[in-house]
Amino acid sequence: MELSALRRRLQSEQRGEELVEFAIASVVFMMLLLLIIEGGILIWRYNMLASYAQAGARFASVRGATSFDNSEFRQKGTTTAVRDYVQALDPAITASIDVAPRTLSPGATFTVTVSRPMPRIAFYNWSGTMTAQAQMQIAR
Q1: pTM of the model
Q2: Which of 41-50, 74-83, 84-93 has the lowest mean pLDDT?
Q3: What is the widest separation between alpha-carbon atoms in the chain?
Q4: Average model confidence (pLDDT) for the chain?
Q5: What gap in Å lies between CA 63 and CA 56, rounded to an integer?
Q6: Which helix (DSSP H) or strand (DSSP E) does residue 37 occupy?
Q7: Angle, helix 78-89 to helix 2-62, in steps of 10 degrees
Q8: Over the stretch 98-135, which tens digit does the pLDDT of each residue have?
């Protein structure tokens, strides 16, 4: 009888060890999983910001040198028109363009820079701004 009682006691202690090991491993696994998810969200948000910059650059290049007959584009000027267009996509965005409106001639290259404050995601409070640039050349 004493031997079977000893076996039961050892088995119950081992069950406790397995439970502790599982608790530690599951906490580490869940933290790693949340970190991967949050990293994916940040990459997705940067990708969206880069596509906004590209859309703004395309908007300016399509309406660039030869489209000053477009009265709205001519009235606002290139920088304001691009800023309004990009900020209509996402109001939290700050957009800028580095070329003066009347200098957009064929062959001119310009850069559209878009920035947005970094958002809070789950546990982490990221600080700073996320910035993306797109550069295009006016063909005609």
Answers
A1: 0.69
A2: 74-83
A3: 101
A4: 76
A5: 11
A6: helix 2-62
A7: 150
A8: 654 455 667 777 788 888 887 666 666 667 788 888 88
* Rg of the chain, C-alpha, whole Å: 28
> How far from 73 is each of 48, 57, 86, 128, CA to CA, in Å?
25, 14, 14, 32
Instruction: Name the residue type at position 97.
Output: I
Selection from 112, 99, 89, 113 nearest residue 65 by Cα: 99
Contact 111, 137 (CB under 8 A): no
Contacts by residues 70-73 (CB-CB < 8 Å, ≥ 24 positions apart): none
Q: Which two tokens stand for residue 16?
A: 């406790």
Task: Look at 3 and 49; give whichever has higher pLDDT.
Answer: 49
The CA distance from 38 to 30, in Å, is 12
Q: How far is the C-alpha of 36 from the C-alpha of 17, rounded, in Å? A: 29
